[in-house]
Amino acid sequence: SDIRQMLATKSVENIQFLPFLTTNVNNLGWLGYGYLKQDRMLIAINAVGAALQTLYILVYLYYSPVKRSKLLQCLLLLVVLAAGYSYFTLLIDDEQTRQLQLGLFCSVFTISMYLSPLADLAKIVRSKSTRCLSFPLTVTTFLTSTSWTFYGLCVHDLYITVPNVPGIVTSILRFWLFYWYRPGRDKPY
């Protein structure tokens, strides 16, 4: 729905950029982890996720009036990805160690992805408005983090299970914010 809103309004107003960026990095990391584990489910879902997030980022950049800061954020995360890829492929020879360290790396990014929508928490409380949060993204985050938590439990992989729990918690917090600061009570920023 966020991409539909951007296309319909030709604007990125009230749509956050950071969740798209961190989700894309997250998908690319888990894609690599899935490849190391030979887990077809991780590979397929994260390949589709990375493609969709790249599309969202391109649409956001196209409609964004402030491109420089967004491009710098993209560049910074590309540098982090390149450094991570270099580290995991050039400096770690043992595949088991590579898998464990990439799992930890992906876990940290997953947690940051789930926390990124809360970056505007002070603004939300101060303005008593949830206009800068996406309700569809909150629902999707809740369902996704819950699904991955259960999947991680089923395949006995703590690197998948543990980092998705904060996604459930932060989604519940955002649901509470939507309840507490209902759309009809919005005040301008």
Which descriptors apply to this entry?
single chain, 189 residues, mainly alpha, Monooxygenase, 2 domains, 8 helices, 0% strand, globular, SWEET_rpt, transmembrane helix, membrane, sugar transmembrane transporter activity, Sugar transporter SWEET1
CATH class of the largest domain, please?
Mainly Alpha
Helical percentage: over 70%
Query: H/E series, N to C?
Result: HHHHHHHH
Taking the sheet with the most strands, its summary is: none
The strand count comes to 0
What would the CATH topology of the largest domain be?
Monooxygenase
Low-pLDDT parts are none
Radius of gyration: 17 Å
Structural class: mainly alpha
Number of domains: 2
Which geometry do the CA atoms define? globular
Q: Could you tell me the mean pLDDT? A: 85
Q: Beta-strand percentage?
A: under 5%
Question: What CATH architecture of the largest domain do you see?
Answer: Up-down Bundle
Describe the fold and architecture:
The chain has 2 domains: 1-91, Up-down Bundle (Monooxygenase), CATH 1.20.1280; 112-188, Monooxygenase (Up-down Bundle), CATH 1.20.1280. It has 8 helices and no strands. The protein has helices at 2-9, 18-37, 40-63, 67-91, 95-115, 121-127, 135-154, 158-180. Helix 2 runs antiparallel to helix 3 (40-63), helix 2 runs antiparallel to helix 5 (95-115) and helix 7 (135-154) packs antiparallel against helix 8 (158-180). It is globular. This is Sugar transporter SWEET1. Its main location: membrane. One of its GO terms (cellular component) is plasma membrane.
